[in-house]
Amino acid sequence: MAQAMPLMTASADLRARYPEGTVYIDGAFIVSPSRLTVYGKQFGDTICDVGSGNADVIDAAVTSADKAWPAWRAMAPSARAALLYAMADRLAAEMDQWISLEAHHAGKPLSDARIDIVSAVMTLRWFAGFADRIDGRVVASAETVHRYIRREPLGVCGLIVPWNFPLLMMVWKVAPALAAGNTVVVKPASLTPLTALLFAKLASDAGLPAGVLNVVPGPGEAAGMALVRHPRVTKISFTGSTEIGKQVARIAADTVKRVTLELGGKSPTIILDDADLEKAIPASAAGCFGHAGQKCAARTRVIVSESRADEVVERLAKIATGLKIGDLSDPATQLGPVIDTKAQSRILGMCQDAQKAGASLVCGGEAPDHTGPYVSATIFDQVKSGDVLAQEEVFGPVMAVIRVSDEDAAIAAANDSDYGLAATLWTRDVGKAHRISGQIQAGTVSVNTPAVVGIETPFGGYKQSGYGRELGLEGLDAYLQSKAVIMDISS
């Protein structure tokens, strides 16, 4: 269990470790011409000002990464691996401190922040293990002609990270990019840039050469799109909204960049007649309400057989109303705030609209009596598959229960979405599990478990949830390109 750190102590610690008004370029904190104010997510208190990038600052970061790339790609893969292991070891050694920083900085309960930091350490170590295992293959070799395929890094990669998992999703991108031999410029979200900046310093202290990892916060148009437009950036990995992802893809096309997009989701949980409810109910609640529902893979649609729907809804409501809402520094807190008051107002407005549209409010749908932008864990029953609440991403702790008559109707409801990121299926029948998993249009299908992410398995979407994959060997491949070598060896 993470040790509680008072919020003011967390703010003071962040200020002590970070030189205000700076970005991280070429192995050092550099004062930026403009700034962003970063706020604590529970009380809205000012933590500090960070440097904010524009096209010129992005160009300086890309230039630094471009300059560092030849030596980094030429470094022995085992040496790159050793540096990634060293970064993981430093992060692990400061575990409790980073957990408290991320909780305050991103508005997470300590339990959620602990999962993030532990996962970041594991991700660094997993990809470090593959740095010296990147290989090609020999094809159609003959006496006079030798043909083989090399796997080579891309160059400078632009990594655009969302606000909901600031450090973890940065590491999801940084670890495979560096293991493959690329250098990077990271653009963290304006709401949560601090731990990305501090991680760059941690990496430098672990021995990472200057320029290999650069971090420039800033607004999407001024910094993010400048990174996408830059002619010396060869790859963009973007995690965020579908709307912005489409803009990234259009702009990246002008310079024919490789692009990975991990976008929105409206993921379903399917609970069939034969499901083990003792496991399915708490897991379904966690899959929706974890991190206050602010996850692209949150299973916010619960599709349940009519014969079991009443029991499922009643038991889910008992869990939802029992979640402990509290201060982020309290280890017992289970439901934290949403990211800001603007998000709180939008989520509550969607709840009001759902009631007007005929959905039945079971619990929640309000702001609890607690300081900060909180939204109570909310459940709506009798939601129709075509309703706005079943189609649009809420990005808050709001569950839509959709009742269906049979297995075919459950599959149809699950696929009735523009998104296709993740899905969970609950059944005791292994034949059904295999058959239905093959029919669900989603990048990940989990069966009898709420887990949809594993370092060893690729994560990404179908349809408007994006393309390309993060994590797993597919996530490493995303930062490599193939080169065919055909050699006359007759003389």
Short overview:
The protein has 491 residues and is α/β, with parallel strands linked by helices.
Would you kindly provide a written description of the structure presented here, covering whatever features stand out?
- The chain has 491 residues and is of the alpha/beta class.
- Helix content is 41%, strand content 22%.
- The strands form six sheets. It has a seven-stranded mixed beta sheet, with helices on both faces. A six-stranded mixed beta sheet has the order 9-8-7-10-11-21, with helices on both faces.
- Helix 6 links the parallel strand 7 and strand 8.
Structurally, the number of domains stands at 2
Count up the helices.
16
> Within the CATH hierarchy, at the fold level, what is the topology of the largest domain?
Aldehyde Dehydrogenase, Chain A, domain 1
- Mean pLDDT, as a whole number? 95
Helix content: 40-55%
| CATH architecture call of the largest domain | 3-Layer(aba) Sandwich
DSSP strand (E) fraction?
15-25%
Q: Tally of extended strands? A: 22
Rough shape? globular
Corresponding CATH superfamily of the largest domain: Aldehyde Dehydrogenase, Chain A, domain 1
Question: Key features?
Answer:
491 residues, alpha/beta, Aldehyde Dehydrogenase, Chain A, domain 1, Aldehyde Dehydrogenase, Chain A, domain 2, seven-stranded mixed β-sheet
Question: Topology of this structure?
Answer:
Blueprint (H helix, E strand, L loop, with lengths): L6 H11 L4 E4 L2 E4 L2 E6 L6 E7 L2 H20 L2 H17 L1 H12 L3 H19 L8 E3 L5 E9 L2 E5 L5 H14 L3 E5 L6 H12 L7 E3 L4 H10 L3 E7 L2 H12 L4 E5 L5 E4 L5 H13 L11 E5 H17 L18 H16 L3 E4 L14 E4 L6 H4 L6 E7 L2 H9 L3 E2 L1 E5 L3 H10 L4 E4 L14 E2 L2 E2 L4 H6 L2 E9 L3
